[in-house]
Amino acid sequence: MNIAIIGSGGREHALCQKIYDSPITNKIYCIPGNAGTALLAKNLDIDSLNFNKLLSAIKFHNIDLVVVGPELPLVKGIVDFLKKNKIKVFGPDKYAAQLEGSKAFMKSLCKKYKIPTAGFKICKNDKDVNAFLALHKMPVVVKADGLASGKGVIICQSKEEVKKFTYEIFSGKFKSSKKLVLEEFLEGEEASYFLIIDKKKFLFIGSAQDHKRVGENETGPNTGGMGAYSPATIINKNLEKKIINKIVKPTLQALKLKKHPYTGFLYVGLMINNNQPYLIEYNVRMGDPECQVIMPRLKTDLVQLLSASVENKLNKIKIKWGKDKCMTTVLCAKGYPNNVTTENKIDLSRIKFSKKSFIFHASTKMKNGLLFSNGGRILNIVVLGSTFIKIRNEIYKIIKTINWKHGFFRRDIGWRVIKKK
Ligand code: AMP
Ligand code: GLY
Q1: Above 50 in pLDDT, residue 139?
Q2: Closest ligand 1 atom to the C-alpha of 187?
């Protein structure tokens, strides 16, 4: 099969590696990809939101299956467009992608089907905001309704902060929507639970915990993710049953009733408190960097799995896992998640890889045969192993051999599962 992967991050490099490893794969095209995917695939410099141009390239290269990595093209309806043009594509349609594309849509669905989630109010003006504030104590979470590249959620400690951020959203700070959602603050530990879904069946495809804050000890602003590990040790069998019965099944049923059954990866973002799961968010795709720690553990052929989902044959598949745990630390450009200095040279030539260590590129590019940074999150250093402490030590050994003075990383990835002595 010829397969196209849309996206350019670490997630897409991890998917690309797994697709490359499959005997079913013939050629891979990454649109636009990065310097890492270029080692396994042909990168095509096409804007994936330019659907007509994308379609021409898909036809020209005889692509049999399109795998969509990031949320934006999904929310914009890439799946509906490609399907209408008879192209096989893995991912949810535009309606179902609202689970991530609109916080108001997702929270309204939770309310209707009594899915456990933080108490909330959808707000269109100051009057709505004041009504919520009159009834709730701080902290209050303000969320822009539409996609906001990870910058649309602020946990506010004062009413003044709420007023400031809600004013910005109502004034159009985020182009995707002028609505917002106010939420109660949930205490607990976060975990991510992943599914692969077709019209008839859903299968568990790994759990992970990531670290969203930029700084060690969970300080500083939120980022796309500074590191992750899999499996998420907090998710036990009993909790899993609750996640499936109270959250996943009612959601999938609701979308079926609307005649838009969910297909693709589904990322269930949870807060766990007292062994009870609360839905924080849905993402209609794999997580980044969670994908980078789930794919290396997966023993089932990914292409078989993706094809089965597209053909509604997931009921014929059993997903197999390796025994190892996996962790990644993200090497970022200084300044991230704010402005970063781009295009600095990186030297990876001194790294000694084992069979259980990899690098998945994120924002990187090649120029005149040399590797350069090209954004905020640059490289994912990924290691498999029997314990998280051994894995983390190995990751840091590798980072020491990377010659790149413009970067930084968190040294405390996995602190919850690596007990201090
Ligand atoms: P979201 O984009 O909705 O996932 O929010 C981003 C991050 O903000 C989450 O991963 C949590 O760390 C935090 N967060 C969001 N909603 C809440 C909430 N209701 N209570 C506590 N933390 C939250
Ligand atoms: N790591 C968080 C996300 O992918 O949204």
Answers
A1: yes
A2: 21
Q: Considering the domain delimited by 325-420, tell me its CATH architecture.
A: Alpha-Beta Complex (3.90)
Distance (Å, rounded) from C-alpha 255 to C-alpha 390? 43
Amino acid, single-letter form, for residue 414: G
Give the total residue count for the chain. 421
Least confident interval from 132-141, 340-349, 362-371, 412-421: 412-421
Tell me the pLDDT tens digit for each residue of 336-358: 999 997 789 999 999 998 999 99
The share of the chain scoring above pLDDT 90, in percent, equals 95
Residue of 107, 136, 162, 281 to mutate, ligand 1, most atoms within 8 A of C-beta:
281
**Dihedral pair phi/psi, residue 49, rounded to 5°:** -90, -10
Count of Cβ atoms closer than 10 Å to residue 400 Cβ: 10
Domain with CATH 3.30.1490.20 in the chain: 119-184
- Ligand closest to 147 (CA) is 1
Q: What is the pLDDT, as a whole number, of residue 421? A: 44
pLDDT of residue 420: 53
Which ligand number lies closest to the CA of residue 380?
Answer: 2
**Residue with CA closest to ligand 1 atom 19:** 185
Name the closest ligand to CA 291: 2
Q: Class for domain 119-184, per CATH?
A: alpha beta
Q: What pTM was estimated for this model as a whole? A: 0.97
Tell me: the pLDDT tens digits for 312-343?
Answer: 999 999 999 999 999 999 999 999 999 997 78
CATH of 189-316, one of 3.30.470.20, 3.30.750.24, 3.30.300.10, 3.40.50.2300: 3.30.470.20
CB environment 304-323: b (16+ within 10 A), e (fewer):
ebbbbbbeeebeebeeeeee
Residue-wise pLDDT tens digits, 240-271: 999 999 999 999 999 999 999 999 999 999 99
- Report the pocket of ligand 1 as residue ranges, CB < 6 Å: 118, 141, 143, 153, 155, 183, 185-186, 190, 212, 222, 269, 280-281
- How many Cα atoms occupy the beta-carbon half-sphere of 396 within 13 Å? 10
Token pair for 303: 């292409």
